TrEMBL record:
GO annotation terms (biological process): DNA-templated transcription initiation
Single annotated GO MF: sigma factor activity
Organism the protein comes from: Pseudanabaena frigida
Protein keywords: Sigma factor, Transcription, Transcription regulation
Residue ranges constituting the RNA polymerase sigma-70 region domain according to the UniProt record: 37-105
Signal sequence region: none
Protein name: RNA polymerase
Cited Pfam families: Sigma70_r2, Sigma70_r4_2
Length: 200
């Protein structure tokens, strides 16, 4: 290998320094630096997200979420605490797991409220029955305040027990759109209902 070839091959250390430089440029709102980082890591981030979510559409959204987050918080990156790729992979894992938890918590909250109403409807505690009825009423009120397209997919998913694919087939809406509407609807419900309602 001659000296020209050696100049074309970057060492691992040089690559890491280059990526730290990219993050610094992104922190200064350099879109070209973000594009370079995206081209370098988008496929890997997609793969990590897919292993967690098992959904192409959701994984594609995670990729966009991660790079949007990088654009916002690049100034907080500290190269002394870890490599750029490790930081990106941690952001990806966190985003994907958060999405799973949001779906699981809402489903559990709805199921718990429904089960509690059925199991306790014949108890000797009128006060408890009233509280349970109020909880169900409040959830329904929050659902009613959602845009109709988001309310529809949530009701089909959590009250009718349909999968995302079944909702798409039933409504004629694309699978990706169904998942996006579920995600946006859950986000709005979480903001309206409050975190404590998701902590069963």
């Amino acid at each position: 290998m001659d000296s020209c070839d050696r100049k074309l091959i970057k060492t691992d250390s040089e690559i890491r320094l280059d990526e730290v430089s990219l993050i610094s440029r992104i922190a200064e709102q350099d879109q070209s630096a973000l594009s370079i980082l995206y081209d370098r890591y988008a496929k890997v981030i997609y793969t990590i997200a897919y292993r967690i979510l098992n959904s192409s559409e959701e994984s594609e959204e995670i990729v966009l979420d991660v790079f949007t987050q990088v654009w916002r918080i690049a100034k907080n990156y500290n190269f002394r605490k870890g490599r750029v790729d490790t930081w990106l992979f941690m952001l990806t894992r966190s985003r994907a797991l958060d999405r799973l938890r949001t779906y699981a918590r809402f489903s559990k909250a709805i199921t718990a409220s429904e089960d509690a109403l059925m199991v306790r409807s014949h108890t000797d505690s009128p006060e408890e029955d009233v509280l349970l009825q109020e909880r169900r009423s409040y959830i329904n009120t929050c659902l009613d305040e959602l845009p109709s397209e988001q309310r529809l997919v949530l009701e089909l998913a959590y009250f009718s027990g349909l999968s995302h694919s079944e909702i798409a087939a039933k409504t004629g809406i694309s699978l990706g759109t169904v998942k996006t509407r579920v995600r946006l609807g859950l986000k709005k419900l979480r903001e309206a209902i409050g975190e404590e309602w998701f902590s069963f």
